[in-house]
Amino acid sequence: MDNKLKANKKRVSREFSLKGTLMRRFSSLVRLRTSVAPRLLLACCLLALAASRLAAQSTFGAILGTVRGSSGALVHGAQVTLVNTGTAATRTMATDANGNYAFKNIDVGTYALTFSAPGFQKESLKEISLTARDTRRMDATLKPGVETQTIIVNDNSSPVITTDVSSLAETKIGDELVELPVAIYSRSTGSTSPISTLTTEAGVQTDDGGNLDVMGTTAALLSVTIDGISSVGVEYSGPVNEMFPSFNSIEEIRVSESNNNAEFSGVADITTVSKAGTNHYHGGVFENLENTALNSNNTFALSKPRIQMNDFGGTLGGPLRVPRLDQNTKSAFFFISFEALRLPRETPILLSVPSTAMRNGNLTSYLGSSTPVTVPVSPISANVLKYLFPIPNYGSADSFANNYQINFPSPISSNQGDVRLDKVISTKQSLFARFSYKNRQVITAPSAACTFTYCAEAGSPLQGGYNTPEIDESLTFAHNYVFSTTLVNEFRGGFNAQHTSETQSYSTTSLLSQTGLTVPQPDLDWSEAPQVLINGFMSTSAGNPGTQRGQTIQALDNVTWTRGNHTFKFGADLRRLTDHDDNVYGNYRSGWYVFDGSSKVGMAIGDPYTAF
Question: 324 burial class (0-12, 13-18, 19+ CB within 10 angstroms)?
């Protein structure tokens, strides 16, 4: 029995995990001072590390480096200023005795650095791009001179191998996600999720079940987050594909393939960062259109396949000001997006059903006999054939294999909205919140190839398609506070929720009455057809209508402390997981009737359909 069968029950699982992680980076051999406070802090971190397995996750990056004079001597006390060119958020610090500086917990974006020290010319580094969980080393060499002179260096160098972190990662920025051909193709299949674009990365592919496989890592060992909050489904332990923000509202997606830090809790990690507003208003509208008229014909095909896809939406972002509450017009920002998909698709279905002659008891062609063979047809068998097996419409009159064909209507319609608000409270603290909502309405063609197993949407075309809607919600809130140049705290909270269902609209009682079949306890709440299996022909049911609701509520906190050449990071991650399923074993409630020749009667008759 497939252990993923759904049940008439409420299954609630709660998982509370508290985790601390400790990471230390040694740039040289040093001696820790013999003092009580550092030892107590280190002991607490180690105890937290042993307490549990989940870790606090962050999307912030870091910019660090060393400042030297032209002679190579380290410059102590040099003033280093970091400016986010998009929001004008500023942080400053002074280099330590070793000439080092490190800006921790930096948002994704583009930055500029300015270095100044008495007796040296100012130096500026422009256009420093920082991606999620990235560490950029930006060393500077100051030349002797008066402070009024400034040297500007453009950071347009090619990527180099970094020695500050050990992980291997690839990042796709927003423009790549929108312009990749695979991104446009994914819409034509009915999905507005960018997760399919990740297969263009080396080491990322899909397995036989359609799940992402990163460097051989199974879905259960993959960490997937959106703005630092988990987007892994509760029931199947894999990413909720349709929960991602719209293509045009994503700043970047980063795939960390191996050697991840302990805080990311997965062998491989996928983190998505949403797009934020900046000092200037910017926006746009888009339209992706695909139809039969615009497509070329296959040389070997008789006609073009019918395609009609329309994907459209728009984005807008910029500074946000609340009258009488915010006097600083450049301290709050917003970014909103909307995307809609309309795909009136059709699903081709090819089935094997009993021929017209077989329905009337004439089995001459079916048995390949040279003499006429007829058998009586019971009233129940006649009703089952009438209400569960469609009449053949393809092939010759005596054909009983692949003799029913239909392009079953299975349209997809989805609407999605994303909103992000950012606030720079001061040079020491900032916060943001993002909310995403997607409503996806889908009609799924029934699968009549489901035999001795469970299929979510299985049944006969005569009972119509399955209504399989999906509603996804995701919320993230983050607050970053800089206590000092060596101590930074980050808090994040949020949730993700997925609501799905598989339902049909016929009456189980009426269908059982029409076929003449009786069952002890028919299900009156769901549409469930009897499963009639005859060797060599389509199945008539095995579908399991029901609803499923899964939700993850998460709160986490990270503290980063730098002392000399050492960086300590520890934190906590608390999650509450809930899952609710209805109607387990619903695919058995209307009965299973199997004719495969294995029973004594079947073996005596010698043919499954004749026994039926």
Answer: exposed
User: What is the rounded distance in angstroms from the CA atom of residue 600 to the CA atom of residue 609?
Assistant: 15
**Residue with structure tokens 């209504």?**
467
Query: By C-alpha distance, which of 150, 153, 155 is closest to 130?
Result: 155
Indicate the SS3 state at residue 529.
coil
Is the sign of the CA dihedral 175, 177, 182, 188 positive or negative?
negative
pLDDT at 50 over 60: no
What are the C-alpha distances in Å from 581 to residues 528, 564, 607? 17, 53, 40
3-class SS of residue 440: strand
Position 85, amino acid: T
Q: What are 190's two structure tokens?
A: 């009915």
CB of 527 closer than 8 Å to CB of 507: yes
Question: Which amino acid is residue 442, in one-letter code?
Answer: V
Q: 400 — alpha (psi -120 to 50), left (phi > 0) or beta? A: alpha
HEC sequence for 272-339: EEECCCCCCCEEEEEEEEEEHHHCCCCCCCCCCCCCEEEEEEEEEEEECCCCCCCCCCCCEEEEEEEE
Q: How many Cβ atoms are within 10 Å of 337's Cβ, its own excluded?
A: 26
Please report, rounded to a whole number, the percentage of residues in the chain having pLDDT higher than 70: 78
Using the structure block, give the residue that is written with the tokens 């040279």: 370
The answer to which of 286-300, 326-340, 356-370, 399-413 has the lowest mean pLDDT is: 286-300
Q: What pLDDT shows up at residue 436? A: 94
Nearest to 428, CA basis, from 479, 491, 494: 479
Model pLDDT, residue 203: 73
DSSP E strand boundaries for 56-99: 61-69, 79-84, 90-94
Number of helices (H), then strands (E), in the chain:
9, 30
pTM for this entry: 0.77
For 315-355, write each residue's pLDDT tens digit. Answer: 999 998 766 555 555 688 999 999 999 998 888 888 889 99
pLDDT of residue 323: 63
What does the pLDDT read at residue 335?
Answer: 95
Task: Provide the token pair at 216.
Answer: 């051989």
Q: What is the pLDDT of residue 35?
A: 40
Distance CA 146, CA 480 (A): 36
Residue 569, C-beta contacts closer than 8 angstroms, at least 6 positions apart: 21, 22, 23, 263, 558, 559, 560, 561
Q: Which of 359, 357, 351 is closest to 385 using CA atoms?
A: 359
Q: Which helix (H) or strand (E) holds 535?
A: none
Amino acid identity, position 367: L
Q: Dihedral (C-alpha) 174, 338, 200, 440: value to the nearest 10 degrees?
A: 160
Q: What's the gap between Cα 120 and its chain centre?
A: 50
Q: Which tens digit of pLDDT belongs to each residue from 469-490? A: 999 999 999 999 999 888 999 9
444 backbone φψ class: left, alpha, beta (φ>0; ψ -120 to 50): beta
3-class DSSP state of 382: helix
* Average pLDDT score over residue span 418-440: 92
Q: Is residue 453 packed enough to be buried (19+ CB in 10 Å), middle (13-18) or exposed (0-12)?
A: exposed
Length of the chain in terms of residues written:
612
Alpha-carbon distances, residue 141 vs 82, 112, 125, 163 (angstroms): 17, 16, 11, 20
541 within 8 A of 528, measured Cβ to Cβ: yes
Which residue, chain included where needed, has tokens 């400053």?
92
